[in-house]
Amino acid sequence: MSLSSPSQHSPSTNDDLETEGAHASPAPHPQPDPLVPGGTTLLPGTAPSLALARSLSSLPTDALPTISPFDLFTTQVEAPHCAESRVDAMRRLSVVAAAIGPAPTVSTLLPYLDAYLTAHVDDEDDEVLLLLADQLGNLVPGLVRGAGALPVLPLLERIAAVEETVVREKAVESLNKIIPCLNYNFGNDDGGSGDDAVMADADGGEDGAGAPSQPPSPAQTPALLLAMVKRLATAEWFTAKVSAAGILPAIYRYFTALR
């Protein structure tokens, strides 16, 4: 076996490197993205996904620049037979909420998600529910603060009762994050019903998972929390009971702070 001479493997000199750099092709300029309004390029990490492109295939091209963040979100969620699109939509939920603002999030986005879960929580993909539980926890307190987060509770309550352990644990984690942020207002109520009426409405069953028929006021927070943990603890399946045990410490600390 012969050894190669040192001259065959001599390191490149600085002059050689500079010569190679002079002939190197310049980096290509980023091309405008057709899915972005105005043809502007998104920042790194925010480029439209393939799932987003597929979910928008039914929309006319000229409608893309004017579609609202909420409509874009619902288009992805309602894309037929496409779990990948729903996963992508749920991953961007907090971005959509920040884009439309706190008030539309509470008045439009959360009711939409509540209706969606009511219809699909039993047959939805576990990854979609896991992402939704995580993103709902991220909305509080940065975007939705204080008692404004009360409409988030019924959504997480439904997810906390599903069969998949990882999904339930994420819902419990988000609930434990939100409950301390539900600042109780010791002032007068806004003309809403008393605690007994809130408990009756929450346990009534027609609205599912205790979703109140009227927007809850801050003074109703304690009753709503008790109604939620009561439903979970007395549910037929053990999955909800386990979740009830997971949020009891946070609820106990909440009521201790009211003293």
Structure description:
It is built from 12 helices and no strands. With 259 residues, the protein is mainly alpha-helical. The longest helix is centred in the C-terminal third of the chain and has 20 residues. The chain starts with 13 loop residues before the first helix and ends with a helix.
> Can you give the mean pLDDT?
76
Q: How helix-rich are the residues, as a percent range?
A: 40-55%
> How many angstroms does the end-to-end distance come to?
88 Å
Quaternary status: single chain
Enumerate how many helices there are, as a single number.
12
Quickly give the structural class.
mainly alpha
What is the overall shape? globular
What attributes characterize this protein structure?
259 residues; mainly alpha; 12 helices; 53% helix
Topology:
Elements: H1 14-23, H2 50-55, H3 69-77, H4 83-91, H5 93-100, H6 102-120, H7 126-138, H8 152-159, H9 165-178, H10 195-203, H11 221-233, H12 238-257
Short description:
The protein is mainly alpha-helical and 259 residues long. Helix content is 53%, strand content 0%. The protein has 12 helices and no strands.
